[in-house]
Amino acid sequence: MLEFVELPDCFYPRDAITIITPCAPTPKHSLYLSNLDDQKFLRFSIKYLYLFKKSVSIEALKCSLSRVLVDYYPLAGRLRKNNNNDDDDHKLEVDCNGEGAVLAEAFMDSTIEDLIEASKVPNKSWRKLMYKVEAQSFLDIPPLVVQVTNLRCGGMILCTAINHCLCDGIGTSQFLHAWAQLTKNPNTKLTIIPFHGRHVLKSRDPPQVRFPLPGYTKTKPTQQVELLKMMQSQPLVATSFTFGSHQVLQLKKQCIPSLKCTTFEVVAAHTWRSWIGSLNLNSDLTVKLLFSINIRKSMNLPQGYYGNGFVLGCAQSKVKDLVNNNNNNNNNNLHHGVKLVQQAKATTWDNNGEYIRSMIDFLEDKNVRTDLSTSMVISQWSKLGLEDLDFGVGKPLHMGPLTSDVYCLFLPVVGDPHAVRVLVSVPESMAESFRHHMMVKESWESHHEDVNTNGYHVQEKLFV
């Protein structure tokens, strides 16, 4: 297991905080947000952490950011309610006013070597790598905040906070690559031109909900089964598991030949059953797995669409069908979980987009919310190209989130496109059981070169 690393403080030089505005005039208007953008579930900033071996000139980063904000001008605007109603559930929009993004410059007395391994399981102290904007509410925080931290060794940490109401993972990757492209080659035109309009995913009038949508609810969960709230009330441990191609193959072998599956499907099902198996729940309780499904192709969204172009797929199962303590039935449990994930994907993509349209219409009711009461949530970052970002000094040595949470992330493994790293925080009381369930024993026992001295590829750190 990795040693806990408490980061030293960042030093901010004089005039370290800069407001970066677009370098040319941009349209001034209100940008409509679709119901997929405007979910309360997404009212936060996606915070990325990058480690680079070499630093980039801060002036070059400022100049290119100012340039790219001409194309991505909503990120230089501000979120607001679309009228004077003070209701927290009221619909949001973007005031495209060109006020600008925040860029902070800092220095830390550390080296890449000190940070590279520990970055896999970030703890609370890593939050200091992102400048904290003083704000009264979520709406007052600029949609884009960046901190560039130079290190003693000449390396660089880049942290970005991008408002999820404006972009999903694919959208943030598209923006970051555009910024990197203009930093590396200032005189080039963007490879992908952003598409700003969100009316392509506007709800119908009147709404037409024609399918059951188990990932959402109008009812409040009972205290006995509000799992995420229970977890967040306890000290959390960040756990990280890397599945190389051999580990993934071992999982897939538990399903084939009767069921062929993708890497995401099998690792998601395995992580879900391991998480549920560690919670000691009533065997008749229905539990859910919520995971992001890209709808750009199925909904024929325009190229360059960087808004939230995903919906939540929902697999659900009785605990007793997903988890069985009899080791002889482990293969059947995994087969069951994978099939449920595949069915959730098929339901979303079938019906000529009608299921997705029903979901968008259902979200028109502001009493509807994502059902997190007995759900594990997985967000996939591992197939978005985030690890390929190049500002002219080479690709990053590490890419991941700034912090770990109870929401599970599937992360890219730098240098191994076939591997996936699972990062999720769990209560200390269930951490040992979760590690045990996550082990792919056949894999690690037969491939010792891939493991650490504990016999399995896992790291953990206390996260509070």
UniProtKB/TrEMBL annotation:
Pfam families noted in UniProt: Transferase
Keywords carried by this UniProt record: Acyltransferase, Transferase
A single MF term (Gene Ontology): acyltransferase activity, transferring groups other than amino-acyl groups
Transferase as UniProt keyword: yes
Acyltransferase as UniProt keyword: yes
InterPro entries: CAT-like_dom_sf, Plant_Fungal_Acyltransferase
Family as reported in the entry's similarity comment: Belongs to the plant acyltransferase family.
Protein name from the UniProt record: Alcohol acyltransferase 9
Annotated organism of origin: Arachis duranensis
